[in-house]
Write a structure and sequence with these properties.
Blueprint lengths: L4 E6 L3 H12 L3 E6 L2 H11 L3 E4 L8 H8 L7 E5 L4 H9 L4 E4 L4 H14 L8 E4 L2 E4 L4 E4 L2 E2 L4 H12 L5 E2 H9 L7 H15 L9 E4 L3 E4 L2
Parallel strand pairs: 1-2, 1-3, 3-4, 4-5
Antiparallel strand pairs: 6-7, 7-8, 8-9, 10-12, 11-12
């Protein structure tokens, strides 16, 4: 059977998954199911779904945390389907990368319309979590980096910094933007702090740290990844 798109449903409620399976299958979607955060993250990387439907109330990890992890590499639509109805929960989900938010109970016709809309608006983008640049390979899903096929020992902060730059390859990120994203608003003036971490990262991934080809300094502005 030829499916139009693959949809990953991450929800621990059996009844919800059954309803979604029946509804979405009848509309020519291939359904992949996960009932935990761990299984959902694994299947997102393995199946490359066109859309992810994510519940926030998962048994092993909060759905908002799962959303943040997915957005480290997954660029296609994520629709939140949750029993949480507060404005705060909705705003937090949207601010952290959700494309849409529906509350339970929901109308299946509305969900289908939102899925179609999300797919139409999807730009041509890769959801492959592994990025390769010459002899450097970075896996955003498993949080690992290799140089010449050998694992590079990076701290969690160093990896977050590298991932941020890679996801904006070719774009200049200001000092303030990087500091806010990695360390928070209270660090946005600590440019020297950032320089120290960039120097450490260059020593680990560049062939010649004194002449970097990947982590490029834009004098007085910030940094970019790639030539």
């Amino acid at each position: 059977m030829e499916y139009s798109s693959t949809i990953l449903v991450i929800d621990d409620e059996v009844q919800i998954r059954r309803l979604l399976f029946i509804t979405l299958s009848a509309n020519n979607y291939k359904i992949v199911e996960a009932d935990t955060a761990k299984d959902g993250l694994t299947k997102a990387a393995a199946e490359h779904p066109s859309v992810i439907i994510l519940d926030l109330g998962l048994p092993d990890e909060d759905g908002l945390s799962v959303l943040k992890k997915l957005r480290e590499w997954y660029q296609k639509p994520i629709i939140i389907l949750s029993a949480r109805t507060s404005e705060e929960d909705i705003v937090r989900a949207l601010d952290n990368g959700a494309n849409d938010y529906l509350t339970k109970p929901f109308r299946t016709g509305e969900l289908l319309a939102r899925i179609r809309s999300a797919i139409r608006q999807t730009k041509d983008s890769s959801d492959n979590p592994v990025f390769t640049f010459g002899n450097l390979s970075v896996d955003l899903f498993n949080h690992t980096a290799k140089k010449n096929n050998e694992l590079i020992k990076l701290t969690s902060t160093e990896f977050s910094l590298l991932a941020l730059l890679i996801k904006s390859e070719g774009c200049v990120l200001t000092h303030q933007h990087i500091l806010k994203e990695i360390w928070g608003y209270s660090y946005i003036e600590q440019t020297q702090y950032l320089r120290v971490f960039m120097a450490q990262l260059r020593k680990k991934i560049e062939e010649d740290p004194s002449k970097p080809k990947l982590l490029i300094t834009e004098s007085g502005i910030g940094y970019r990844f790639g030539e």
